[in-house]
Design brief:
With 507 residues, the protein is of the alpha+beta class. Helices cover 19% and strands 25% of the residues. The strands form 9 sheets. A 5-stranded mixed sheet has the order 2-3-1-4-14, with helices on one face. Strands 6-9-10-8-7 form a 5-stranded mixed sheet, with helices on one face. It has a 4-stranded antiparallel sheet with strand order 12-13-17-18, with no helix packed on it. The termini are far apart.
């Protein structure tokens, strides 16, 4: 397992300095105490470490000696002058994640039971408090409504209230593997006459097992009547650290217990988010065993992963002492993906790579001529923020002028401010990505925003060419364009596109 220890002076705040002389003694002590684990000081600014220096080391899973050392080091950090605090994280390797008793899988889609403004599509079937309208998440509304986002070429989707939504093939996989651990039912698209058929039908899947609440959480206001929390956060923020009086925060995902029976899928007892003006903006995390996630990935299920190029595996630890890892990786029967499916995937990717190679001279970004270029094999385009992976909750945009596979382009003036409009993408990176719906999952598997730009902040063409070749699709990327191109896209904000303006490139 990979361990990272980060130290900094209290009060905790983001640092821009490059030297930390008050940490030299503690860093020397860290290297001495953990010498058997070969700690190394990471270079540069490490993501999530607030500008402070970070040491990284490796340890075997379940190492009791490390637990003794980290407790001793915590005491020494607390007694240091000036007042010092920090945190440590523990992340499993990809192979170790397969043994995890519980991990939080990466779900590529946002909550599909909410509209474009984050408001729930379903009213609770039963509320537990008339004052705050806190729902009983074990009671699933009938019918269960979802957004058009389920028409994306993914097979697993996040739901805000302790469930998943899956397509029919995945439902069969789950029923074969863990059918007695879940309740299921069919979902329908809200405010639409569109009826999904065949493999595109979608179903809600609710785990029967609920494990304990997280131990490390940031809490807010309470309902004056039922005393339930109206806002909850996860992890460490400035206030949390500054009130600790020094020492190390254990950033592992500790929960109270792993439930009453052994299961491969469960919902965490506590939610993340808040109730704001009576509207819930929250979600209850879904956990799976590493073995179940590995089973789904072996069956080529899209929209879910144990980790990505940007997100490391998140395993859970039990306060009750239940093992974090299983000694052997369990299996759930025969992998359902046939050799024919494998061949079809390989042919599709290879054809895409040939198309990408032929487009090596097509410009990235829009600086040259005010156009965003992308290769399409279908008329469906996903538009998203490459840093947060937030995309339009109304699903893919449809290209009316699509006739056949080839290179298409969108003028940046067709990117519009979405305030007051029916659909849009919230942008926090001042950048938009455009990708053929058929390759959406592959892009999320491989794209790393931290590597996508150069030191000057501009888009890195070399990196984007590498990713396009790897996934087999020449996607499009657009940062805030020059004013001369007359686009409303000015950076961060809420934006939509006029898909009617997407056209095939002139020969």
């Amino acid at each position: 397992m990979k361990v990272r220890i980060t130290l900094g002076k209290l009060p905790w705040k983001y640092q821009t300095e490059t030297r930390f002389p008050y940490l030299d003694k503690l860093h020397k002590r860290l290297v001495e105490m953990f010498a058997a684990y070969q700690p190394k000081l990471l270079k540069g600014i490490v993501s999530g470490c607030h500008g402070y220096p970070t040491h990284e080391m490796s340890m075997p899973a379940g190492d009791t000696e490390f637990e003794k050392l980290i407790k001793q080091f915590d005491k020494e950090v607390k007694s240091a002058k000036p007042k010092v605090g920090g945190f440590f994280e523990v992340k499993p390797t990809e192979e170790e994640a397969k043994h995890a008793r519980f991990l939080e899988p990466v779900l590529f889609a946002w909550s599909v039971d909410e509209d474009a403004n984050g408001r729930p599509l379903n009213s609770p079937k039963r509320v537990l408090c008339g004052a705050c309208k806190f729902p009983d998440i074990t009671c699933v509304p009938e019918p269960f409504l979802v957004s058009k986002a389920v028409t994306k070429k993914l097979e697993v989707f996040r739901v805000s209230t302790g469930m998943l939504v899956v397509k029919s093939r995945v439902l069969k996989l789950l029923q074969d593997a863990i059918g007695d651990q879940v309740e299921t039912g069919e979902a329908v698209i809200a405010k639409s006459n569109e009826k999904l058929t065949g493999d595109e039908r979608v179903f809600w899947v609710r785990p029967k097992q609920m494990i304990g609440d997280r131990l490390l959480k940031v809490i807010g206001d309470q309902c004056p009547k039922c005393k339930r929390l109206l806002s909850r956060g996860v992890g460490m923020n400035d206030k949390h650290v500054n009130n600790r009086g020094g020492g190390l925060v254990d950033m592992r995902d500790w929960v109270e217990h792993f439930g009453t029976t052994k299961s491969d899928i469960a919902v965490v007892a506590g939610y993340n988010g808040r109730i704001e003006d009576g509207v819930p903006r929250w979600y209850w995390p879904i956990l799976m065993s590493g073995a179940l996630v590995a089973y789904l990935k072996a069956n080529k299920v899209t929209g879910i992963a144990a980790s990505t190029s940007q997100i490391e595996p998140e395993v859970y630890f039990s306060k009750d002492g239940e093992p974090t890892f299983e000694p052997n990786v369990r299996t759930f029967g025969t992998v359902a993906a046939s050799a024919e499916v494998e061949r079809e995937d390989a042919v599709r990717i290879e054809a895409g790579r040939n198309a990408v190679a032929a487009l090596k001279d097509v410009p990235w970004d829009c600086d040259k001529d005010g156009y965003v270029y992308l290769h399409l094999t279908t008329p469906e385009v996903m538009v998203l923020d490459p840093m947060t992976w937030e995309e339009d909750s109304d699903g893919p945009y449809r290209v009316p002028k699509f006739k056949k596979p080839g290179l298409y382009r969108l003028p940046v003036k067709a990117i519009k401010d979405a305030e007051g409009k029916k659909r849009g993408v919230a942008v926090d990176s001042a950048t938009l990505l455009f990708i053929d719906n058929s390759f959406f999952s592959e892009l999320q598997d491989h794209y790393d925003w931290d590597k996508a730009t150069k030191s000057d902040g501009n888009i890195d063409p070399k990196y984007h060419n590498e990713i396009a070749a790897k996934i087999g699709s020449r996607f499009g990327v657009c940062s805030a364009p020059s004013a001369k191109f007359k686009s409303e896209f000015a950076g961060d904000g809420l934006y939509t596109i006029d898909a009617k303006k997407i056209e095939a490139c002139p020969v």
